[in-house]
Amino acid sequence: MALSVRPKLTIWYIGTVSLLLLFFVGADMVGLRRNLMSRAAAAASSAVDSLAQYLETAPSGWQGNAQDRARVGKLMERQLGGQRALAAVLRPTSSEPLFLLNLGGLPEDRVRRLLAEHAGSRSGRVVVVQGENFRVVSRAQAGPERTRYVALVALSVEDRVATWRQAIGEHGLLALVLVALVSVLSYLVIKRAFAPVRRLTAEVRTITAADLSLRADASGDRYEIGELAATFNAVIARLEGAFDRLRRFSGDVAHELKTPLAVLRAELDRALRRDRSAEDYQQSLKRLRAELDRIVEIVENLLVLSGAEVEQLARREQPVAFDHTVMTVYEDLLALARQAGLCCELDELAEVQVQGDPQLLERMVANLLHNAIKFTPAGGKVTVSLRAEDERFALSVVDNGVGIPPQDLPRIFDRFYRADKSRSKRTGGAGLGLAIVQQIAKIHGFELGVSSEPNRRTEFRVVGRTIKQV
User: How far, CA to CA in Å, does 273 sit from each of 259, 265, 277, 361?
Assistant: First the structure.
């Protein structure tokens, strides 16, 4: 079963703390045992050194008399008093002690086993005798008459081992208590840390496509959660704007298609209502063809606006002589301008080559020029110019027509938007021309701008990068 982030973090935190505690407790116990054993070894070595020194410095050597036994006994009791230990003086070739001091009442069988350790090969080792640990140290020493003796000390370390084991139990219990405490604290801390996430999740679940106006509260945290909430709100805001544009776009499309479809239906009903002459049928078919052409134009424009041309652009992109494109469009629409009673002038035409799609670039120029002609009254003037400087070009289309009111400028490139609704009905169009210009400029990386003084002057300007002539 997959776990959520919160229990995972809790488990990881508890596991990490447990491993750290295990490491430190283990290191502490190893150090404690080493310290206890080294102190036992030092005590045993000190005692056997004192015994060996007495054997070496005794005036007449080891006599084993009461005086020697008393002196050695006092010396060993001073060194090993209060501990379970064994001190002995032996001949190198015998395990029978010349002197034996049994401190702590060691059993006889254990004493014999310990006396057998005097050979020296195992001196300084820990020996286990019947379950009891002893540190055994022996020294071979010559007396004043070059007589060889072996000084042996066996010190029980069982009390130190017991101390160490008790410390292990106490530290282990303390570690368990600490792990339990850390577990509870980590659970509470992580639960509190994730409280803003749970609150944010609950708020986000209330936001649906039906109502995108709701927002998550980003005021309670200035850091990660606050940034996450602010970022989410920004995404929702963009989605809300996209949904609003989609709703308006769908409504505008339905509105624009409703009229030609209604005309088509009316013409078909009219033609089918009774028999008509061939001339009447021909007129009806012409009107049907005109409305179909209008529908086709709207659909083609919508395809461009939907971005469907962008993928095709990547396949059709090529060097384009943009000045030739401007000249071709100018010559094609010159007759239309004259028919509308306008003066159409080509002010400047620099040699410009750009990277792009020839058909889309021609459509962009045609839409700008056609828009200027359509909204300039008879007797007006339309001026087209193409300038180039520092690997950049500027296409300008200027007219002295009706202009654009300031309140309409921000929305002039919106789809289906028409500043003057009544005049748009007379001039035709669906309000898609400038939106298409903006889309084509965008997919080519051009900058599009507009400035206008109502009833005086309007200028549309396209700026972009040029490429070297080939």
Answer: 21, 12, 13, 46
Mean pLDDT of 50-67: 72
Do 285 and 321 sit in the same domain of this protein?
A: no
Closest of 305, 373, 375, 386 to residue 343, by C-alpha: 373
Convert the pLDDT of each residue in 316-334 to its tens digit: 678 999 999 999 999 988 8
Burial (CB < 10 A; 0-12, 13-18, 19+), residue 329, is: buried
In a domain, 436, yes or no: yes
Q: Which helix (H) or strand (E) holds 418?
A: none
In a domain, 117, yes or no: yes
Q: Which domain holds residue 241?
A: 224-305
Distance, CA of 324 to CA of 338 (rounded, Å): 21
Residue 308's pLDDT is 47
Cβ–Cβ < 8 Å for 203, 46 = no
- DSSP secondary structure string for all residues of 367-409: HHHHHHHHTS-TT-EEEEEEEEETTEEEEEEEE-SS---GGGG
Per-residue pLDDT tens over the stretch 157-189: 888 888 888 999 998 888 889 888 888 888 888
